[in-house]
Design goal:
The protein has three domains: about 5-55, Pemi-like Protein 1, Chain: D; about 65-135, 2-Layer Sandwich (Translation Initiation Factor IF3), CATH 3.30.110; about 145-340, Phosphate transport system protein phou homolog 2, domain 2 (Methane Monooxygenase Hydroxylase, Chain G, domain 1, Up-down Bundle), CATH 1.20.58. About 60% of the residues lie in helices and about 10% in strands. It has helices spanning about 5, 25-30, 75-90, 105-120, 145-170, 170-180, 180-200, 205-210, 215-240, 250-275, 280-300, 310-335; strands spanning about 15, 20, 40-45, 50-55, 65-70, 95-100, 120-125, 130-135. Strands 5-6-8-7 form a four-stranded mixed β-sheet, covered by helices on one side. Strands 1-2 form a two-stranded antiparallel ribbon. Strands 3-4 form a two-stranded antiparallel ribbon. Helix 5 (about 145-170) packs antiparallel against helix 7 and helix 6 runs antiparallel to helix 9. It starts with a helix and ends in an 8-residue tail after the last helix.
Length: about 350
């Protein structure tokens, strides 16, 4: 275990010339970081009144390679979880290998499908009977957080609206097409999660993606997971088209559409409040979400039995869950902006 002396020291700052201050660094720390006399150091001024100092000029982290060994008995979901975990942890190269045996064809298909459908900026660069090598080609950060977030939430909003359209038209094929859009949302979710995990370890990257402090990564991780869940429920709504015994009645369609428009408005405004750090809008959206949930309960309890009752109940639950996840985003906004409305003494 490291001692306090190894991780924290106090040094006196001294003025050097008219506009420069200097501070000495512990020799042991400098040696451990393999920094030499004359090397460049990058200094980051953080929003929390601290500074971060690290070797080098750019923000590039050293390329990391991970090797995992699988067996023919490993469940497909176990292999999938391991690869996703390595992708999220910032590895540039992931090699999947076996102990001198052939990779099962189903395992090979799983890995190739995972790269194609779920991991932005990745390619399989080497493949043989006993190993597959995945290379992450995208340099982080390619997108600022705001841009990536906008793309993800716009896709999710579109999914929700098109799911309602599929239900209105009683079009099963259209519903399946909408549900497949969830794969694209998941890809962005993993990409942003990877960016956040790398940014929390690298102060320079934090600013490059448009965030101010490490705590932002934790809050936005919550936001991304909620958007992903909203997209999941939009996909479920679209899939429920196939379970309708007959087209929905016009009155029920109108009520579902009104409720859906209300909840998607809350979702979009929650993102707007987040991006603009708007506490007043966040409080307004919180009230609107509460009303949408109450409207959903009234519609659920007042619904008469029909051939489509079970499907409609599940659709109403999808809409309610979208409201609840939007409420979680609003909580993040309020936590982030509370300092704007208080007076400290």
């Amino acid at each position: 275990m490291q001692s306090l002396q190894d991780t924290k020291q106090t040094r006196r700052i001294q003025i050097s010339g008219g506009s420069t201050y200097t501070i000495s660094l512990p020799k042991k720390w400098v040696d451990e970081l393999k920094v030499k006399n004359g090397d460049n150091m990058t200094i980051i001024k953080n929003a929390n009144r601290s500074m971060t100092l690290y070797p080098g000029i750019g923000a590039e982290m050293p390329a990391k390679k991970a090797i995992i060994t699988i067996s023919q008995k490993d469940p497909e979901e176990s292999i999938r979880r391991k690869i996703i975990a390595l992708y999220l942890n910032g590895y540039k190269t992931i090699q999947i290998t076996t102990r001198g045996m052939k990779i099962l064809s189903e395992h090979s298909r799983l890995i190739k499908d995972l790269v194609r459908r779920s991991m932005i900026g990745t390619e399989i660069v080497e493949s043989d009977s006993e190993s597959i090598t995945i290379q992450i080609l995208t340099r982080l950060p390619e997108l600022t957080f705001d841009v990536a977030l906008k793309r993800m939430y716009l896709m999710t909003s579109s999914m929700h609206r098109e799911a309602i359209e599929a239900l209105k038209k009683h079009d099963v094929e259209y519903g399946e097409e909408v549900a497949r859009m969830d794969d694209e949302v998941d890809r962005f979710s993993l990409y942003i999660m990877r960016t956040l995990m790398m940014a929390i370890q690298n102060a320079s990257m934090l600013y490059d993606v448009g965030l101010e402090q490490p705590s932002d990564c934790l809050n936005f991780r919550t936001v991304i997971s909620r958007i992903e869940r909203i997209a999941d429920h939009a996909a479920l709504m679209a899939k429920r088209t196939r379970f309708l015994k007959e087209p929905l009645e016009p009155k029920m369609l109108k009520e579902l559409e009104m409720l859906s428009n209300g909840v998607i408005g809350c979702f979009e405004n929650s993102i707007s409040a987040l991006v603009n750090k708007d506490h007043i809008l966040a409080e307004k959206v919180a009230s609107n979400i509460a009303k949408v949930i109450e409207d959903e309960k009234e519609l659920m309890y007042g619904m008469r039995e029909s051939k489509n009752s079970t499907a409609i109940k599940f659709i109403l639950e999808d809409i309610r869950r979208t409201a609840e996840y939007s409420s979680d985003i609003i909580e993040v906004v309020i936590n982030e902006t509370i300092q704007n409305i208080i007076t400290e003494k």
